[in-house]
């Protein structure tokens, strides 16, 4: 690159051209790619998603749930394109699941399943974007440390609410009416 020359910003076309085995995101005009989740990461996300869907998404009767919950939705939070591991919208804001490839309405909840290669990105670059777009709650789940951290939006940034580890029974906002057995997320 020529010294002093402006860096070319990545576009959505660049994101679409990324190899399919990678998760691709646009953050601050940069194309950020990472490998698909490893087994412990994927298992924790799947078990958490099943628990939340059964308790809050309506389970088999989608119309009865308070939330619409999705694995790895593509979020277009202008000018960023992010892919959280889990996201949820309260039905009062999104009454029905739209038939779209991506979402421009910021979710009410995001969960990032941390790995050594994604933890810094999730904490330092994605959290501020979620806050800027009004995502009310963020959970950070670390399968290696067997830990859940819970954050709530407080003004323009997140306030740490709690951390939980190992096999604790957890009631964490915004999903605090049904206990979550953290040990189920780490089970082999």
Could you explain how this protein is built, in words?
- With 188 residues, the chain is an alpha+beta fold.
- The protein has one domain (37-186): tt1808, chain A (Alpha-Beta Complex), CATH 3.90.1570.10.
- The chain is 22% helix and 36% strand.
- The chain is built from 4 helices and 12 strands; from the N terminus they run αββαβββββαβββββα.
- It has helices at residues 12-16, 39-57, 119-132, 183-186, and strands spanning 22-27, 30-35, 67-71, 75-77, 80-82, 86-90, 109-113, 137-142, 147-154, 157-165, 169-172, 175-181.
- Strands 3-6-7-8-9-10 form a 6-stranded mixed β-sheet, with helices on both faces. A two-stranded antiparallel sheet has the order 1-2.
- Strand 9 (147-154) and strand 10 (157-165) form a beta hairpin.
Write out key terms for the chains shown.
alpha+beta; tt1808, chain A; 4 helices; 188 residues; 22% helix; six-stranded mixed β-sheet; globular; two-stranded antiparallel sheet
According to DSSP, the number of beta strands is: 12
Evaluate the radius of gyration.
Answer: 17 Å
How far apart lie the N and C ends? 48 Å
CATH class: Alpha Beta
β-strand percent reads 35-45%
CATH architecture: Alpha-Beta Complex
Strand order in the largest sheet: 3-6-7-8-9-10
**Helical element count?**
4
User: Could you say how many structural domains there are in total?
Assistant: 1
């Amino acid at each position: 690159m020529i010294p002093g020359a402006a860096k070319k910003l990545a576009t959505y076309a660049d994101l679409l051209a990324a190899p399919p085995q990678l998760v691709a995101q646009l953050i601050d005009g940069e194309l950020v790619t990472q490998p698909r989740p490893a087994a412990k990461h994927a298992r924790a996300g799947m078990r958490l998603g099943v628990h939340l869907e059964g308790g809050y998404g309506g389970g088999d009767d989608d119309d009865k749930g308070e939330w619409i919950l999705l694995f790895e939705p593509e979020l277009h939070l202008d000018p960023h394109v992010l892919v959280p591991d889990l996201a949820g919208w309260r039905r009062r804001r999104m009454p029905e699941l739209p038939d779209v490839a991506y979402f421009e309405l910021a979710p009410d909840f995001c969960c990032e399943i941390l790995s050594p290669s994604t933890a810094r990105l999730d904490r330092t670059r994605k959290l501020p974007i979620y806050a800027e777009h009004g995502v009310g709650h963020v959970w950070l789940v670390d399968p290696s440390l067997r830990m859940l951290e819970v954050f709530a939006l407080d003004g323009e940034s997140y306030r740490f609410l709690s951390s939980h580890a190992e096999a604790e029974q957890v009631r964490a906002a915004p999903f605090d009416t049904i206990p979550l057995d953290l040990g189920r997320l780490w089970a082999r």
